Amino acid sequence: MGETTRPGGDRACGGLAASAGQAGQAAPSSPARPEAEFARGLAESLRSSLEIETPAGPVLIPAPGPYRSVFAWDSGWHYFWLKRLDPHRARAELSSLLACAEPDGRVPHERPLPGQASYGLVRRFQLRLLKRSFAPSGSSWFIDPPIYLVAAADALRDAAEGGRTEARDAAVSGIAARSMAALGWISDNRLAAFLPPPWDSLPALLHPLESGTDFSPAFDAVWGRPPLLQLRSLALLPRLGREGWSLAGSRSFPLPLLFDPCYLGFWLGARRAFLPGPGTEDLVEAYWQAAFEPATGLFRQFAALPGSAPRPLGAATFSSLLPLLLYMEGPHAEEARCAVERNALPGGPFWEGGLPGFNPGMRGRASSSSLWRGACSWANMDYCHWSLLRLAGFPAEADLLLDRLARRLASGPAWEYLNPDFRAGERRPSGGGARPFSWNGLLLAMAEGEVLDLGPSRRSGR
Question: What share of the chain in percent tops pLDDT 70?
């Protein structure tokens, strides 16, 4: 498929019709896309090579080698492509993850699995540095953006529509109860009641490694640029331990609080599914009013430094587009569609070379060993990007993204991230990080039309 130009360029898009359908309604998927066969084979290969049996059931690790743990962020993404292979196995992924929850409901970022003694020297050194980020139970104190709760809501909707056997109903009930407990823990421990509205009702992150995007340049303005960012992230650990890793009952907080668009987008989507009603919709509206910037079509990251109210702080990354998944229908649908047109179409700020890029402010810079920096294209973000294009009524552009990603994965390793401007024949690697990496299974979700939709018409997950 050839390059697709940006319709409308920089002109106002208020009267410009989407290329198919209406905003908030995903364009129909082709029943037999040419990428689907390759995507299914890739997904089956990833499942075969990355599946591990745990006491709670099967789970996928993100990659062989340095990632032998159950990760909440990763299992949430696994669900959306596993359901295209085997819906029962997809639900088992969530059951296995949620069985790792602490008794108070907290779903940790990471629960290590046996076998980590085989890690290499570098990974063992990293874990030693992060020792204070693990609770006595062995699980991480960090939390993750709750894509796993969005996945749980989807699993519960499918179960309700499909009619399950009694045995499966018991497993589904467990997913429901633990998901509600996880939402309860977030409300009890990550709301800063001492901040002004709406920030007193939106969960704050305490550490960059709770963002899902690690040491992204979005955090430089809060904690400093590498290597200072990594050093300060380590220095935070004992101080967070003294605060109990919680904001419960706090009248102030001695460390920065981060309001990350990626985290808040998925948290509001999960709350919309499990706690539907006016209270949730009021929060969704309040977040739009507080954080959406009409001039750029992006959601700003906010940070509350000690003694100060939250203010916009940090570079824009693709995380700044993610909350648009909440608004592709409803009163802000046209503004959201215009934001997609401005930012997400090929040739726009969030494309670099042949693929979407995560960091528009780092175009042309080599990707970094500090993950999520430089020019990098991540399969989970590409899945969200593709979903935004479909929901905004740009199916040709969504197909282009799918085609480009399939070609790249077919021609080289399933890297943790891809170099978006890589060209065939170059001597440098086409990507970086670990391989084969599980998120690349999301190509199957895209090829088979599995749109990630956080809109209000999605039925309750309860």
Answer: 90
